[in-house]
Amino acid sequence: MNIILLSGGSGKRLWPLSNDVRSKQFIKLFKDDDGEYESMVQRVYRQITSVDRDAKITIATSKSQASAIKNQLGDIASICVEPCRRDTFPAILLAATYLHDELGVAEDESVVVCPVDPYVDNTYYEAVQQLEKLVEQKNTNLTLMGIEPTYPSEKYGYIIPETSDTVSMVKEFKEKPDTETAKIYLTQNALWNAGVFAFRLGYLLEKAHSIVEFRDYRALYAKYETLTKISFDYSVVENEPSIQVMRYNGDWKDVGTWNMMSEVMADDIMGKAVMDNTCENTHVVNELNIPIICMGCKDMVIAASGDGILISDKERSGYMKPFVDKVCSDAMFAEKSWGTYTVMDVQPGSMTVKVSMQAGQQMSYHSHDYREEVWTVVAGSGKAIVDDMEQVLRVGDVLTIAAGCKHTVRAETNLDIIEVQLGESISADDKRKYPSENK
Q1: Are 168 and 244 in contact (CB under 8 A)?
Q2: In the sheet where 350-357 sits, what is the strand order?
Q3: Residue 375's domain spans which residues?
Q4: Residue 9: which pLDDT band, with cuts at 50, 70 and 90?
Q5: What pTM does this model have?
Q6: How many domains does the chain have?
Q7: What is the CATH number of the domain that holds 63?
Q8: Within this chain, do residues 379 and 238 fall inside the same structural domain, yes or no?
Q9: Is residue 71 part of a domain?
Q10: pLDDT for residue 12 is more than 90
């Protein structure tokens, strides 16, 4: 089974734990079978491979999220990185050409595209397997999975099938309606459009070449930022006459808001927090190293991180995006392929960061033009390489890296460094990378 998982979005609806770098699928709010906390992307990967251990999973994501995926999944999943965000049609097209040209997937093989962020049980991915079998029958060009509605929702687009059978040809698509219109759709056996698409790889490549002029994956990647921002639904699905839908009536939750996320979180309290016995239906997630005390809180969500603090009625939390837009700043926490990066303090001319590296991991070999860095090792051991000169790092060591110096760090054990960045211009864009094969 070839699966493309779409992992994108800015993550503002689960602020302050999510941001442009750490979207909701990377927040560890769930637990695995061993009781360890896991994120949505880890949960989804675990579920797919438990249903089909041989599944070939490729994650289509943005540059800003690639490091978090590598941090949480390691090298077990292939990653197709968008050079910039261009909506779902360009993202799926790039991933499809990546499968064909870089991974060698044949044109007659089935591919299923799924979002990475619904909260489901394993029957959902068993249904995804059925989509693959339906594609192999070659009765239609596209096969969708539609979710059996549980109420007349205004949040989703609708698929109107020709019949109420488990598998039916599609009659038409409807945009997100008001509640009264949604009620009418439900009388027509309508299904929620969950953004799950299945097709032969060759079909999509042929369709893509009729819409976009390109030679292969690398040529498409090079011109990616010139592609029109358009969804896969608008560009392909709604213009395809040969299309069927399979009905799914298992558990399915869109956990895009704190209100919905709180229904499936592993614990009511995560982090340092205490609630008195008058609190009801309240959830607290605290990533700060200070305690939160809740008294008399009812139907509330409280979330705290280095990016900010949210205190909200659960129902109202779904409407916070315009308020988040007013206060959004640079992300204060990011997961990297080698560990985590936490901003501790920002002053004019300086920024203090805690760098936590996992044992055996190494940063890229890089330099900064406009800032110097002062590193203090506070835990663990490793090795620094500065302008090709090696230096052992132990607790208490202090190392100054001048602007323009090439440098990297390799962690021998779990390694914590307090990094003070100094300069008139401190920016994440001030970074040049160099080959590191022999570093």
Answers
A1: yes
A2: 333-336, 339-347, 350-357, 415-422, 372-379, 398-401
A3: 338-434
A4: low
A5: 0.85
A6: 3
A7: 3.90.550.10
A8: no
A9: yes
A10: no
